[in-house]
C-alpha cells in the first residue's frame, strides 16, 4: 500500500444528518410545506419535456431569468448552482488562494470554515457578542489590518436567527477591500436583503437557496447574485453542467408564480411567529430555564438549561431539533408540531 490520503483530508468524515424515524422533524430548517397540487402539475409537465439524452443548459438561462424576474433584478447578475453549498465551495476555491485569510463570525453556518479549510486558507473566526450581534466596526478594522481576502456570513444567521440591518451590512461592504459573500439563505423570511443592490458594489456576492423558503431542498438549487465581472468569474470556474435539467425545470416553475411563492413564505412566517410567541410565553413562566434569541428566519434559537437532557427528552417524544451545546435551534413546523415541541419543553421543566 503506497497511496496515502493527504494530511488535510485524512481525518475527515462524511456529513451525517440526524437519522432515524422521528414523528416531528424540526432540525434542518426545511419548509413544512409540500408543493401545491397546481405546482406539482406544472412540474410534471415541465419535467416530461426534458430531453434526458442531452446535457442541460450550462447557463440555466431560463431558470436564471425566472429567478431574476421574481426578485426584480437583472438576470446578467445571476449564476445557478447545485445548492448554495456548491456555490460556497466554488467561490471559496476560486476566489481564494492558499494561505489567504477568510473572516467568519461565530456562531454561524459551519460550512464556511470547512470550505476555507479545504481551500487551504486561514479562517479568522470573530466571536459575536453575548447577544449574538456582529461588531461591524471591529470587523471593518480587522479586515483592513489583517488583509482579509473574503468575509462570509449568513444574514439572517443560521443558527442564531438574528438579522443585521441592510445599512450596517452596506457599511461593512463599502468599508473593506475584501470580497463579501453574503449568504441570504433565509432572507425570504426577513426584509433586509441587498439583492437589488449588487451592482453598486464590486466586492459583493449574495447567495440564495431554494432549500428553505421555496421548499425545494430535494432538488439542490441555489443562486449567486453579483455584478457582471464577479458573475462572469463564477460562471467561468463552476463546472459546466452543475445544475441538472430536472432542477432547472422545477426551479423555473417555482419562480413563475410570484403570488404562490409569497403565499408559502407568509404561511411559514406565521408558523415561525406562532412558535416564537409560544416560546416567549413559556419563557415568561420559566425565565431561568430558557432564553430566546432571534426569530428572523424560519426557526428560533434559544439557550436552555440542561440542554442535553432536554434534547433527549424531545427525541424520546419523537421530536428532533438541532442542539449546539447549551442552545437549541428549532425549525417552525405545522401548527400541531409547534405546539407539541413547546408542550414537550414545558413538560421537561415541570418534571
Ligand atoms: C441551508 C443553508 C444553506 C444550504 O443551502 P443549499 O442550497 O441547500 O445548499 C446555505 N447557507 C445557510 C446559512 C443555510 O442554512
Model description:
The chain has 351 residues and is an alpha/beta fold. The chain folds into two domains: 109 residues, Aspartate Aminotransferase, domain 1 (Alpha-Beta Complex); 207 residues, Type I PLP-dependent aspartate aminotransferase-like (Major domain) (Aspartate Aminotransferase, domain 2), CATH 3.40.640.10. Helix content is 41%, strand content 17%. The chain is built from twelve helices and 13 strands. It has a seven-stranded mixed β-sheet, with helices on both faces. A four-stranded antiparallel β-sheet has the order 9-10-13-12, covered by helices on one side. Helix 2 packs antiparallel against helix 9, helix 3 runs parallel beside helix 9 and helix 4 crosses helix 5. The longest helix is centred in the last third of the chain and has 28 residues. It starts with 6 loop residues before the first helix and ends with a helix. The site of pyridoxal-5'-phosphate has 14 residues, from helix 4.
Task: Describe the structure concisely.
This protein has twelve helices and 13 strands. The chain has 351 residues and is an alpha/beta fold. The protein has two domains: 17-34 and 260-350, Alpha-Beta Complex (Aspartate Aminotransferase, domain 1); 50-256, Aspartate Aminotransferase, domain 2, CATH 3.40.640.10.
